[in-house]
Design brief:
Blueprint (H helix, E strand, L loop, with lengths): L1 E4 L4 H9 L3 E4 L8 H4 L8 H23 L6 E10 L2 E3 L5 H11 L3 E13 L4 E14 L4 H10 L19 E5 L2 H5 L3 H8 L2
Parallel strand pairs: 1-2, 1-3
Antiparallel strand pairs: 3-4, 3-5, 5-6, 6-7
Length: about 200
């Protein structure tokens, strides 16, 4: 099976290879405003947010494929959201923001929601199949030294919630309920089901 992956995440690429899916990247053009798709709306619940963002990414990827006149293969899009209660923890803007997120997650259980969509295009119509993986992650209480060391690693840069479970932050996780691959950014069971592999 071969698809387009509309994500530059190395983790998503690695996870697709793990289940034997071949892919070409279908990344946004320079003129596309990809960041505006992820802008949070006031009062939006995390699940509503991730579903909306994934659907918007799917529509944008479908338009991109048509614009480039590429062969019609399925397109996979995904979005991972970390939520503490109703508060969405986006990618940290800087080290201070990353430290704030780590302190908020310290000693608590948070949700990781990863939405995925597969876009099927043909001449007559566009079909979008969607799924959401919800996992719960518990962190041990973090010491100021833990936070400093993690910030020094730079690992939380560009990551929802300011951490990567597959890296150093794995030492902070005391319990997981749900999909480890979903927490990494691509739930493999849901992905395989949507791709029918």
């Amino acid at each position: 099976m071969k698809i387009y992956l509309a994500s530059q995440s190395p983790r998503r690429q690695e996870l697709l290879r793990q289940i034997g899916v071949q892919f070409d990247l279908l990344l946004p053009d320079a003129e596309e405003d990809a960041e505006s798709l992820e802008a949070e709306r006031a009062g939006e619940a995390p699940l509503t947010y991730v579903k909306r963002v994934v659907y918007a990414k799917a529509l944008a990827a479908a338009q991109r494929l048509k614009r480039r006149a590429l062969p019609a293969l399925p397109i996979l899009v995904a979005d991972t959201t970390v939520a503490l209660g109703r508060t969405i923890l986006h990618k940290p803007v800087d080290a201070k923001d990353n430290a704030r997120m780590l302190r908020a997650l310290s000693g608590t259980t948070h949700r990781v929601l990863t939405g995925i969509a597969v876009v099927h295009l043909d001449k007559a119509r566009t079909r979008i199949d969607e799924a959401v993986s919800e996992s719960f992650v518990s962190f041990k209480p973090l010491t100021p030294r833990d936070v400093r060391n993690y910030l020094a690693s730079g690992e939380g840069t560009g990551k929802a919630g300011g951490y990567a479970i597959q890296g150093l932050a794995g030492a902070y996780v005391t319990q997981i309920h749900g999909s480890y691959s979903g927490i990494m950014g691509l739930p493999l069971a849901e992905t395989a089901a949507l791709l029918k592999i």
